[in-house]
Amino acid sequence: MAARRAGGRAVSAAGAGGAAGAGLEVRGVGKRFGSRRVLEQVSFGVGQGEVVALVGASGSGKSTLLSILTGALQPDVGEIRFDGSPVLPGRRPFAYMPQRDVLLPWRRIVDNAGIGLEVAGIPRGEARERVGRLLEPFGLAGTERMFPRQLSGGMRQRVSFLRAVVQERAMLLLDEPFGALDAITRDELQRWLLDIRRANGWTILLITHDIREAVRLADRVLVLPRTPGPLAGEVLVSREIPRLDGFLTDPRVPVLEERLHGLLVAASTRGGGGP
Ligand SMILES: Nc1ncnc2c1ncn2[C@@H]1O[C@H](COP(=O)(O)OP(=O)(O)OP(=O)(O)O)[C@@H](O)[C@H]1O
């Protein structure tokens, strides 16, 4: 089921802790490294078909949270559920796109994009076939036999994104996918992502430092506090706001950005926390 909507605003299962079939539910997650607390009582949900952005100051634990979702780290407390069931090791419903492209320089593009499939035990020939079908919609036609060094930064990010999408998992986790790109390429890729996602209805959790990017890409934006604690707030982004042409001049955009900025500042100056 897609996130329920009322009056153009997303009404997700997030605040309620989620319901069966609601997609991702993160419940009361806490994590510390030694004596340093990084996450505490973090709870939210991402409904199926929803795009949720998570923003937070540097060091607030965004990447740690994604690592918990991917299974690279275990939470000290809390639970991760998907579609009403606990997420089990080895059977994660997520495909992950890391912050920096981690393409292997010696592998051709087709084999870089298919690496997740190969790791999952799919023969290379079949992986190549599945990647091959997506090259054109990903703007990568003709690159399959090339090596990463022959592509621009924007194209390499598309290969990384393709590598996540081709695994056909229920949900995509994107960690600052456009953070390392120049402003023009970033704008191009945001437009492209909006476009291709509209056709596919992917469920996405996106991490970004960039408030404008969060408002542009997400149905809902969550704010992680700098000092460990529950989420500092969330902002719903109306579907009536145009995300492609007209986004930058829509008067509702700066209002949402201001609200998010306010939440981030409040979250950064709030007392408590610390080790
Ligand atoms: N493996 C680890 N061992 C010890 N401390 C860690 C480890 N991983 C992260 N930390 C610490 O946890 C805190 C949160 O790090 P994390 O990378 O999750 O934050 P972030 O919000 O993603 O930051 P940024 O936006 O700068 O990437 C930081 O203070 C970091 O130094």
Key attributes of the depicted protein:
binds adenosine-5'-triphosphate; P-loop_NTPase; disordered N terminus; 275 residues; Rossmann fold; ATP hydrolysis activity; ATP binding
Describe the structure.
Helix 7 (211-217) crosses helix 8 (252-269). This protein has two domains: 44-93 and 170-268, Rossmann fold; 104-169. Helix content is 32%, strand content 23%. It has a six-stranded mixed beta sheet, with helices on both faces. The chain has helices spanning 62-70, 109-113, 115-119, 124-135, 153-165, 183-200, 211-217, 252-269, and strands at 4-6, 9-11, 24-33, 36-46, 51-56, 77-82, 85-86, 94-97, 171-175, 204-207, 220-224, 233-236. The protein is built from eight helices and twelve strands. The protein has 275 residues and is α/β, with parallel strands linked by helices. This is ABC transporter ATP-binding protein.
Summarize the structure.
With 275 residues, the protein is α/β, with parallel strands linked by helices. Helix content is 32%, strand content 23%.
